[in-house]
Amino acid sequence: MVEKKxxxxxxxxxxxxxxxxxxxxxxxxxxxxxxxxxxxxxxxxEEEREEKVESMQVDHQPVESGKAGDEVAIKVSSPTKEGAVxxxxx
Length: 90
Known about the structure:
The protein is mainly β.
């Protein structure tokens, strides 16, 4: 019998706490570091996708990076559910 081993998609760096549908922006409460240019994987239930962080805001001001404890807004290419886990993969 072969045991299936789950692999982690990368370093968990936060969770989506809010999604603005019209603007297609996800607000992520960070538990790790994230910077413009990083690639993330957003996962919830059976849904998963990769996004490159093109821009980021904190309190409606553009920033280049965020750290644990920050709530950052990032533009996403498709709807995202609150509670989705965000992993940094590159």
